[in-house]
Amino acid sequence: MPKYKILNYVKSCKISLFCSNGFSTSSNQTLTKRIKSESKAVVVGGGIVGLSTLYHLAKKGWSDVLLLERKELTSGSTWHAAGLLPIFNINYTIGQLHKYSVEMYQRLEKETGVDIGFRQCTNLRVACTNDRWDEYMYYKGIADTINVPVNILTKEQVNKLWPICKIDGILGGIQHPDDGYLQPANLAQAFAKASRDLGATIYTQTPVIDINPLYIESERSLCIKINLRNLDSDKING
Q: Where is the FAD dependent oxidoreductase domain (predicted)?
């Protein structure tokens, strides 16, 4: 079965423990008891995408969900991401996703009590060519359709918002008052806290080494193999 079709048939995910000779028998038994052997869904990777996926599954009522991270949460590219939140996008679907994200981040802070460093400081884009100005006018129609606040500015209004800007040759600009930035690592921890509060499980220091379809009689599932070599039982954080 092609891998891209597996999810259409999966009913559950089974966790297979792989313990090499680096463990004593007692350590193996301790880890086996602490790691879940089955879950409705397993998310691999504890970056912002994985944690957001886990949170939204749990938010939809899937409490039997599990996240596996090979090191620590946000230890990949998330911790040094810029954290910018530009709403501008000439696509209805992505535009609505951006809008939802900004609204959701504000709710998440209140929901978890975790300061994600969310600040709305506005965004300003200028047009120096007719083609760019036409693009902004086209985008304005999309923004109005999905109820995203956007202001069309003359070059004088641009200069008022950004006094050091040289407006010679500028046709005008657009402004998103809701644009801003946040701290990605803080956001990830907020997702993690909210997910755990909703019943989801997170294991760090738990690398996945293989994912394969598993067929037992009429049952269809995925077998996810994790490597616990050289790990101590107190490093498995559930």
A: 41-211
CATH class of 84-182: alpha beta
Tell the residue number behind the tokens 């501008």, with chain if given.
Answer: 88
Alpha-carbon distance of 1 to 5, in angstroms, equals: 7
CA 26 to chain centre: 37
Q: What's the topology of domain 12-79+185-227?
A: FAD/NAD(P)-binding domain (3.50.50)
List the pLDDT tens digit at each of the 238 positions of the chain.
333 333 333 445 555 544 443 443 344 444 444 566 677 888 989 999 999 999 999 999 988 888 988 889 998 888 888 888 888 888 888 888 888 888 898 899 999 999 999 998 888 999 999 999 999 999 999 999 988 889 999 999 999 999 999 899 999 999 988 888 999 999 999 999 999 999 999 988 888 777 776 655 555 555 666 655 434 433 444 4
What pTM was computed for the model?
Answer: 0.76
- Return the bridge partners of 3, or none: none
Residue 108's contacts (CB-CB under 8 Å, 6 or more residues apart) are 114, 116, 187, 190, 191, 194
125/123 Cα distance (integer angstroms)? 7
Same fold across 12-79+185-227 and 84-182 = no
Q: Which amino acid is at 145?
A: T
User: Residue 213's CB: how many other CB atoms inside 10 A?
Assistant: 14
Amino acid identity of 154?
T
